[in-house]
């Protein structure tokens, strides 16, 4: 099969009146916006539910475990469809119609789905980090007169997060990749922009290569920043330099 290579396609005009490279960069902006917003949501919820899983109240632990199992075991694609197609129908008529008419409905839906899905994974990491700490740290907090909430805030969580930075780096890299699922609900992020370029130009290899390079650059930058953060916050005996790159997903 003869394939006509054309690496100059990135600077040719798309049907939108802009170069295809700008189409990819516009998709990149939506990818990063979705990933960052979902990551903030995941970090907050994951910290809360991950901490609750280590408390001494059984009913609280059961609720937190239920949250984690619910959002971790339902495939992300299914969650996207549930949030986008089903949730508005379950709302009162006026609210459902308003949700469906939002100009950025696909972005909001993707953020929520990614945020809840990733928060369940972050919760597991937070729980693991807290449980990896010596019991003496919790006891020392109590000996100092700290309340359980203060012990978590000032003693346990700061140390736990230092331990799980490599794992959180993997989750952040995953949330960037998982944002590509949002194309199924109409969000024109990087992967969707790549498919659009491929369909209009039939330059499949060039389009996919461009997207691949962009994803690699993002991953390298994220890895560099994570290693820098790891070195700054490292505590001898708990986390070793370079463990970010060794962590698997």
TrEMBL record:
Transmembrane stretches, by residue range?
30-49, 70-87, 107-130, 151-169, 207-229
Ranges for domain ABC transmembrane type-1 come to 28-226
Q: Which compartments is it annotated to reside in?
A: Cell inner membrane; Cell membrane
Q: Which InterPro entries match?
A: AA_ABC_transptr_permease_3TM, ArtM/GltK/GlnP/TcyL/YhdX-like, MetI-like, MetI-like_sf
MF terms (GO), sorted A to Z: transmembrane transporter activity
Q: Which Pfam families match?
A: BPD_transp_1
Which membrane topology describes this protein? Multi-pass membrane protein
A single GO BP annotation from the record? amino acid transport
Entries under NCBIfam families matching the protein: HEQRo_perm_3TM (TIGR01726)
Sequence similarity: Belongs to the binding-protein-dependent transport system permease family. HisMQ subfamily.
Q: What is this protein called?
A: Amino acid ABC transporter permease
